[in-house]
Amino acid sequence: MIRAAFFGTPAEAVPVLFGTLQTATVEIVVTRPDAPQGRSGEPVAPPVKVAAESKGLPVLQPRHPLDVLESIRGLDVAIVAAYGLLIPVDLLAAPIAGFVNLHYSLLPRWRGASPVVRTILAGDHAAGVTLIQMDEGLDTGPVYAAESTAVRPGETAGELTARLAVLGGGLVAITIPGVVDGTLTPVPQDDSRATAAAKVGVAEAFLDPARHRVDAVDRAVRAFNPKPGAWAIVDGRRFKVWRVGPASAEVPPGVAVVADDRVLLGCADGAVELLRVQPEGKPEMDALAWMNGRRRKPAGFAS
Question: How many other CB atoms sit within 10 Å of the CB of residue 21?
């Protein structure tokens, strides 16, 4: 049986861990340290730790990945999926077949920290996962295998990531044996086709419907759901928009109004329907409930 290490942290890495277990004995799971969350600041275990412990797998949570060098030396392979830290070069040769990384894009498109967000923001019709041999670069290693899927209408980054995680788990399960026994040869990426998936900042998620076109507003709301959330300023306070839908109506740009019990937001070239919103200091809610709470008074979105 293949002897493997697994590196991963968030929920989207869990299906990849389970896919690895279909084809290998996972002798060690490496994940990020427990992190404080919520108002209490109590440390919370990352999803991969919870999943690993439910399977009785040993877990390490080093402050620095290099601290696990001796624990993984001589294993057949190490699989990485959304670990959240760069793997040091000195660690790459510790397993016999090295490190392989499951990346959430169709490389070389969208190398970097936020591939799913960038896929949706760019309006790409196809998404996917790619299994690569890790090297010293950022998502630059040669490709063992890839699997594609269509981006569904209205799909958020969170929803697409969850689907890609399941797709990636299956890809790992069928690919790792060939990686370990050497029958699968990785193919170099075409660097001339590479695009960068820079990390997303909160400022980038600002919505300005008076200046943004309908398609841009739709993509932004989907891409920044669930993190950090597309946001605007309404009545001088931060206001998040979680879901929008298509609309055919004439609405002043940058203004939300109620029409036939639908909340319509004017954009630079048309309108969208607001479906789920979150005023500052309140829980996420139906957009019509929000407007009813303000007596259906039109709401201006600041530029």
Answer: 19
